[in-house]
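The instructor's notes for this session suggest beginning with a concrete chain rather than abstract definitions. Hand out the sequence below and ask the class to guess, before any prediction is shown, which regions might be ordered.
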Amino acid sequence: MEKKRGLGRGLDNFFGPQQEEEKTAETLAVDVIEANPHQPRKHFSEESIEELAESIEAVGVLQPLLIKKDGDKNLLIAGERRLRAAKKAGLKEVPVRFIDVDEEKGDRISLIENIQREDLNPMEEAEAYDTLRKKYKYTQEKIAGLVGKSRPYIANSLRLLKLEPVVKEMLRREELSISQGKLLLSVKDGREQIKQAKRMVDEGQTIAESTENTKKKTNKVKSHQGYYSYLENSLMEVLGTKTEIKGNHEKGKIVIDYYTEADLMRLCDIILGEDIDG
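After discussion, reveal the predicted structure:
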């Protein structure tokens, strides 16, 4: 299981020590705060907002929202869930902290806060990583360092974007777990992938049951290529990088991609089962 870093440690990278020591927050009317168009979180559970609203009614908003001035606009960088709950609780003002950041840094702060609070569903998380990769040309290693995850974790999260749209929507609604989503990547036929995903949801399968059923379905595929696809996905799951099996059942080769010298060393450590730099 990935070890979470404490909330705020990742944000230390964006604020100097003097700013971090400042505890006094300003207040701002809730109706003048505008939502962040780059907010990675798209789905907000009404039940979760209601629970937070009850907490806010009892003790108030304990952590200031992060706001960026954009002309005469007050753009919300982090804290949309708190803002929604504060409105539901009937608050007219909330504590805020104004920060001066560019769009790139604002996107990074928003992502870090959501990741550290475990606020994102698997697809929102994958799409947020993909945005950083495409919009700012971040490598998987840089994203991993930014959010306190391993590179294989980032690679496997991004692979979820290859699933069928219907299956991705199930992940977005959290009807499927991220582990079930990874299992479904081994099912190359789109219709069969959707069929298996619906069965997982309808039957309320555990991850162990989903794993067994997916393996059975894969093993029923008569062509070697179907089985090789399953093996490729299994290898990618372990190695956290693109892997291809080329050849037939008698001979061939396994091609494993790496992107930096550090990535090569990481893969060697996994394959050899030891730290080759040690």
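Then share the key points. Residues 224-239 form the longest helix (16 residues). The mean pLDDT is 81.
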